[in-house]
Amino acid sequence: MDTITLSDIALKTIIGIHDWEKTIPQTLRLDITFQTDAASIAVSDNIAEAIDYEKVVQHIIAFAHSQQFQLIESFADRLANDLLNHFPTTSIALTVHKPGALKEAKDVAIRVVRSR
Question: Which keywords annotate this record (predicted)?
Fold first, then answer.
């Protein structure tokens, strides 16, 4: 299987456990790797058979704005499963970064891998 990776997708959303986090949008940064069959897609050269990167990003932003989460673990799990259901892939690796979550660390992140 081949992979397609989208790196460092930035979005703002409401996420967190503290009261102030439930009212102020924060930046999350995402890295996503999709498993795909690039050889068959290359033969057809047809976007309808491929993973449309622009639609992926639009979908992620809409997902982030449609719900609120306390934990990046919940956000990552639900988003990965949602992407599996909406795009032509059998497996997704998703890393969600929450920079600035701790003043003592540059970043906090979780990586989830989901497949059908």
Answer: Folate biosynthesis, Lyase
